[in-house]
Design brief:
Elements (H helix, E strand, L loop, with lengths): L17 H13 L21 H15 L5 H5 L4 H13 L17
């Protein structure tokens, strides 16, 4: 799995988006995808070669990062990185959820 030394090295699908930054980190940490391969139009299965196990790991990491639960139909409807980012952005905008890493240590689940 590729190692990342800082978020500054990540190719951000949406440069102004904290969601995009964290999402890229989660993809790299939970799959065999290198940071340079990540772009909004990349298809998770066909272009990036993710299998069912990779997708489950990625969905789990996303859920853990933002302390949310994604419905099965949400997950199965995601084909590209853009789809994933859009679904996540929509979900996060409908509630007051922030990445676990951004929360004070006292509020993190352990």
């Amino acid at each position: 799995m590729p190692e990342l030394s800082s978020e500054a090295e990540l190719p951000i699908p949406d440069a102004g988006s904290r969601v995009g930054t964290v999402l890229v980190r989660l993809i790299v940490e939970n799959t065999r995808v290198a940071p340079g391969e990540i772009a909004d139009d990349k298809r998770l299965r066909e272009d990036l070669g993710l299998d069912s196990f990779d997708l489950v790991c990625l969905a789990s990491a996303v859920e853990d990062e933002w302390n949310i639960r994604l419905a099965d139909d949400e997950i199965t409807g995601i084909a590209t990185i853009e789809d994933l980012r859009a679904a996540l952005s929509t979900r996060l905008s409908s509630s007051e959820v922030e990445p676990v890493a951004a929360r004070p240590a006292a509020h993190r689940q352990g």
